[in-house]
Amino acid sequence: MDYGVINLEDGNKIHLYGTPGQQRFEFMWDIMLNGAIGLILLINNNTPDPMGDFEKFLNYFSKALESVPFCVGVTHLDESQTFILPDYHAVLKEKGHIIPLFSVDARSSQDMNTLLMAMLGMIEPEILIRNVSAPGQTGAARG
Questions:
Q1: Reported pTM
Q2: 2, 4, 19, 125: most buried by Cβ count inside 10 Å?
Q3: What CATH homologous superfamily does 2-133 map to?
Q4: Quick count: other Cβ atoms within 10 Å of Cβ 11?
């Protein structure tokens, strides 16, 4: 399990927990959901069955999606054209989910910050207002 802390400008902290998506780590997913205030899912578009993986995660986290803010980042869209972002949107729509979905490079702090801010904005919209009014100073990228 990965763990990190982001220190916000106002003194608050965001504790981040991460786990691999392989089935053998499924026991950790429930542990991480216990007390979670938000969920970010990263989907690798360059795996043998990215859409199957996506649907598997959506099904697994379906109960959490009813009560926990949730957003998705799709990685490696530039390396595989098997699926494109609208395909992922279609699956979400089919399952009745209206959640933020982004194309991201997991190595880019700017992309990850955008994903994190989208999730935090669902929890506390004021975070987005503060950060939009001060361009370039996102606070969440520090730490």
A1: 0.81
A2: 19
A3: P-loop containing nucleotide triphosphate hydrolases (3.40.50.300)
A4: 6
